[in-house]
Amino acid sequence: xxxxxxxxxxxxxxxxxxxxxxxxxxxxxxxxxxxxxxxxxxxxxxxxxxxxxxxxxxxxxxxxxxxxxxxxxxxxxxxxxxxxxxxxxxxxxxxxxxxxxxxxxxxxxxxxxxxxxxxxxxxxxxxxxxxxxxxxxxxxxxxxxxxxxxxxxxxxxxxxxxxxxxxxxxxxxxxxxxxxxxxxxxxxxxxxxxxxxxxxxxxxxxxxxxxxxxxxxxxxxxxxxxxxxxxxxxxxxxxxxxxxxxxxxxxxxxxxxxxxxxxxxxxxxxxxxxxxxxxxxxxxxxxxxxxxxxxxxxxxxxxxxxxxxxxxxxxxxxxxxxxxxxxxxxxxxxxxxxxxxxxxxxxxxxxxxxxxxxxxxxxxxxxxxxxxxxxxxxxxxxxxxxxxxxxxxxxxxxxxxxxxxxxxxxxxxxxxxxxxxxxxxxxxxxxxxxxxxxxxxxxxxx
Length: 446
Ligand code: SAH
Ligand code: SF4
Ligand code: F3S
Fold this sequence. Notes:
By secondary structure, this protein is an alpha/beta fold. Among the domains are: about 10-130, Methylthiotransferase, N-terminal domain (Rossmann fold); about 150-265, Transcription Regulator spoIIAA, CATH 3.30.750.210; about 390-445, CATH 2.40.50.140. The protein has helices at about 20-35, 60-80, 90-95, 95-100, 115-125, 140-145, 170-175, 185-195, 220-230, 255-260, 275-280, 285-300, 320-330, 350, 360-385; strands at about 10-15, 40, 50-55, 85-90, 105-110, 130, 155, 160, 180, 200-205, 235-240, 265, 305-310, 335-340, 390-400, 405-410, 415-420, 430-435, 440-445. The longest helix is centred in the last third of the chain and has 24 residues, at about 360-385. The termini are far apart. The model has no long low-confidence stretch (mean pLDDT about 95). Iron/sulfur cluster binds near residues 162, 164, 166, 172 and 207.
């Protein structure tokens, strides 16, 4: 008798809010579901199971999750069997409260449960509601190592959680304490991904410079990890994010020189340029120290691309403090900087310490717009320095900005857009840069 194909468990859809860590967790949730007979759909209206993977870093991110859930509630009216789940940071932080606010939700699971999503769906189908927030739940390794939908560029998480106490930040609360994966396991996962066609790997950690500090039987370092992963044959490009200025070790810069496939790009957020604000944020460095690191990075790797994150309007920020931040941006010459208005979050040290969110919204807004406008000009200048150069690009396919063109990234992670009659995804090609905006470089294939 011919084997009957296994019945599908239904179609699943995952909507992702938040950082790259969440993007990766969503990808692994989908792999888990796929491995258990679910089909993947890109349209929630066609799904039997929908998950939203949430972020709590700013209030807006949480609003976005609830507005998505509102839309799912409407879908559930048409399809009462629709299973709705909330995963990730907001689920971890709000827990049971989500059921109260959105009673049509079936699953609330935190930041360490995404490889159990298939079991959760089964429990719901058996008539139970699921609340799973265990902070010590093990993320199933076999799931990570199993085939997933491999793209040219893949993310690999090297650690979870964060041991810092930046006063504005909710991440240590939602993701728990720092916990590094064994080096050999990471290398194995990268090897599998490269074997399946990945050409670029980005290693992810909230504070990646402290990778390995508690590993047994011996401590490991980020440098050790980079040398081990870079050694994998067939890996064209290696990147890592995010660096914390108080943990970044200048010795690491040698790795950029030694490893030809380690790309010259550093994302190391300053958050503020004012020493008083940095102290209130408990960042552990000063404006001057940050600039020393910038200088050391540029000296070791002259062509390095720098990216930052900045919060404006943090508790007690004066106009002078803000000007210090503007000054830090002006001097650093970031390729890109992500600029946010401070959003007070429950369970953060700032709230526990009683730091007042006292910069009026109008002022936050003005400072944010002012800095963003300046940064756009500076980014344009940084990008214009590439005009006339020939740069090597790893193709990502159709451009998001212009579907008739192809886009990819150069070693510094700048977006490069070209015209081409064919799909260049996954190829390395050279481009002569003709012009630049603050957001992208435009050029011709050579
Ligand atoms: N682990 C990374 C980033 C974590 S969150 C790091 O340490 O750099 C990403 C960015 O969101 C932060 O760098 C910060 O700029 C911003 N952010 C964090 N908490 C915030 C808050 N309460 N309000 C506004 N922006 C915030
Ligand atoms: Fe948050 Fe600071 Fe940890 Fe980054 S280093 S995740 S900003 S606490
Ligand atoms: Fe990432 Fe947001 Fe959580 S930034 S770690 S998804 S709070």
